[in-house]
């Protein structure tokens, strides 16, 4: 009897231990993903609970969820229960992130999950997630990076053109840039895209529409295999469904799709060593070279300008000009560097120059010796050297060159430099002072005296009047709040106002102003500023729904206006609307 009682007690305790063992854990679909992929996070528990609170998902945007699923089964008399909250996340940028702790209350106790680390890399060529609409969008939407040359020489210009191809089966309503390539091994220059133009073309032999989003000129600065990172976009795609409305029209489903141009690799060749001149300084392209002066005849102590100029096509900003050498007897100053270079799809073109100021100190003829400039010609793939002509400077008048003084300590002869002041040396001196005798007039009793006496008395009523107005304004709480809010709006929107008429800069400045205002008022970072989160925060602060909706619509206008043309009147309306919304928000916050 005692043995049976002991066994029953042991079994009961084991059952209680099994029942009391609560598990609550976080699981991710992958620990490493591309910036154009999605992440699924499951918070799973083996007992039912209440007051589930997810983490903030910093660094991600919630694109789906929470989805709740419950599994309850009996196998061989043993009950199995699980409850799961699922979220679908889209990363905002590359980096290492932590999915924080979620909490749940079970039987009066609070349980927390263990944080999970996730790494977000550059975009992958083929994302591994997606539903049917995603698959349709993926098959009919392509972002392509076209490289002008995959095996250039070092410092040879290549062009990367990013094109977005859209099939007629779908339509694109909006897009924004998520991740820009970092050209760490290149000198890069973006070509200004004043207006996007939709064109007809082909992709894999099928008719497509495409738009050129970005053009970039690159000059590789290293040899070997160099990677060009992908451009990543977030695009709102309208995909047709099998459903129709009451009029028979096809219904569309909007999918937020992330596309990337894919990694590109180029093989950069070094310049040949055979025939490389000793004075070669890294110039690659096709150039002209000359040394010229603005005058060849002058008097001693007068100045002239000598200009060393290289013009043509090539890496003009990436090498130094040869130095000018002048004979003794001419004083030479540090050169002024000037660049007149434009960058287009063929690379840099224009001219660069160093302008020297020269001052001869004595009479005579001074030869400025010729100098040489070497460059690598891409057309012939050979080195070429250009030598300038010798320039003779004829100094007509001045002290004789043989005039010198002897340094008795070192027995060295030093040329005496004669400096002549041109023009009137004493033009700053007043030769006619026009002095007038000072009379013995007394101050007391004069007009100035009576003005000095009566002015303070007359000012007393003014001080009283302005003091009363100041006190009234200080007591006007509502008016002060409105004036303070208007001043704050003007402060944040000052940069946007300066760029009225320049669509791209205006909307970038206005979006930055709206974000900075939220950072100052709500103490959140720019990476956390999703539209849903902003709406929730403003609702928590009891801001009117109309003001919240207007604020979100302004942010959407900033995103949309980057890619579509906008008139000056529309920009002025958006500026006035932003000023009014910030003022209203500030009064309510």
From TrEMBL:
InterPro entries from the UniProt entry: BatD
- Transmembrane intervals: 448-466
Instruction: Read off the Pfam families from this record.
Output: BatD
Q: Which keywords belong to this entry? A: Membrane, Transmembrane, Transmembrane helix
What domain of life does the UniProt record list for this protein's source?
Bacteria
The record ties this protein, via PANTHER family, to:
BATD, PROTEIN BATD-RELATED
Q: What is this protein called?
A: Oxygen tolerance protein BatD
Species name: Aquimarina brevivitae
């Amino acid at each position: 009897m005692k043995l049976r009682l002991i066994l029953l007690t042991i079994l009961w305790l084991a059952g209680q231990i099994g029942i009391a063992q609560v598990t609550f854990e976080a699981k991710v679909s992958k620990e490493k993903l591309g910036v154009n992929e999605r992440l699924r996070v499951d918070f799973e528990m083996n007992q039912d609970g209440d007051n589930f609170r997810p983490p903030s998902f910093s660094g991600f945007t919630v694109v789906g969820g929470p989805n709740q699923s419950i599994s309850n089964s009996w196998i061989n008399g043993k009950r199995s229960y699980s409850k799961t909250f699922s979220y679908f996340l889209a990363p905002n940028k590359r980096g290492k992130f932590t999915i924080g702790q979620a909490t749940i209350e079970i039987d009066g106790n609070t349980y927390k999950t263990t944080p999970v680390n996730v790494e977000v890399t550059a975009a992958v060529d083929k994302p591994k997630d997606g539903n049917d609409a995603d698959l349709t969008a993926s098959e009919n939407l392509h972002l392509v990076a076209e490289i002008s040359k995959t095996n250039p020489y070092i410092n040879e210009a290549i062009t990367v053109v990013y094109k977005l191809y859209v099939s007629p089966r779908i339509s694109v309503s909006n897009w924004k840039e998520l991740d820009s390539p970092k050209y760490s091994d290149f000198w890069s220059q973006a070509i200004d895209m004043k207006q996007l133009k939709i064109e007809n073309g082909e992709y894999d032999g099928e008719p497509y529409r495409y738009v050129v989003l970005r053009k970039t000129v690159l000059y590789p600065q290293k040899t070997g295999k160099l990677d060009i990172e992908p451009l990543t976009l977030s695009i709102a795609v309208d995909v047709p469904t099998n459903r129709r409305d009451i009029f028979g029209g096809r219904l569309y489903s909007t999918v937020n799709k992330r596309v990337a141009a894919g990694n590109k690799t180029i093989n950069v060749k070094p310049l040949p060593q055979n025939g490389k001149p000793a004075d070669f300084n890294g110039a690659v392209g096709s150039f002209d070279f000359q040394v010229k002066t603005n005058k060849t005849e002058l008097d001693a102590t007068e100045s002239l300008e000598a200009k060393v100029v290289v013009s043509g096509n090539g890496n003009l900003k990436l090498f130094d000009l040869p130095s000018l050498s002048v004979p003794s007897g001419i004083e030479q100053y540090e050169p002024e560097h000037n660049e007149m270079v434009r960058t287009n799809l063929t690379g840099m073109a224009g001219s660069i120059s160093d302008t020297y100021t020269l001052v001869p100190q004595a009479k005579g003829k001074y030869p400025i010796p010729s100098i040489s400039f070497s460059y690598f010609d891409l057309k012939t793939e050979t080195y070429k050297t250009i030598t300038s002509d010798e320039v003779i400077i004829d100094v007509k008048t001045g002290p004789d060159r043989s005039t010198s003084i002897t340094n008795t300590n070192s027995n060295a002869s030093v040329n005496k430099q004669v400096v002549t002041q041109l023009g009137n040396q004493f033009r700053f001196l007043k030769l006619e002072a026009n002095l007038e005798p000072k009379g013995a007039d007394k101050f007391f009793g004069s007009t100035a005296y009576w003005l000095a006496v009566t002015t303070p008395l007359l000012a007393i009523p003014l001080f009283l009047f302005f003091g009363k107005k100041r006190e009234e304004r200080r007591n006007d709480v509502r008016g002060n709040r409105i004036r303070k809010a208007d001043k704050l709006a003007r402060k944040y929107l000052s940069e946007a106002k300066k760029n009225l008429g320049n669509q791209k800069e205006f909307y970038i400045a206005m979006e930055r102003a709206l974000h900075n205002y939220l950072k100052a008022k709500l103490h959140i970072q720019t990476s956390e500023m999703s539209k849903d989160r902003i709406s929730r925060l403003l609702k928590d602060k009891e801001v009117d729904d109309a003001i919240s909706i207007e604020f979100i619509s302004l942010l959407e206008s900033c995103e949309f206006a980057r890619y579509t043309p906008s008139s000056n009147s529309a920009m002025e309306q958006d500026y006035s609307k932003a000023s009014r919304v910030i003022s209203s928000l500030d009064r309510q916050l």
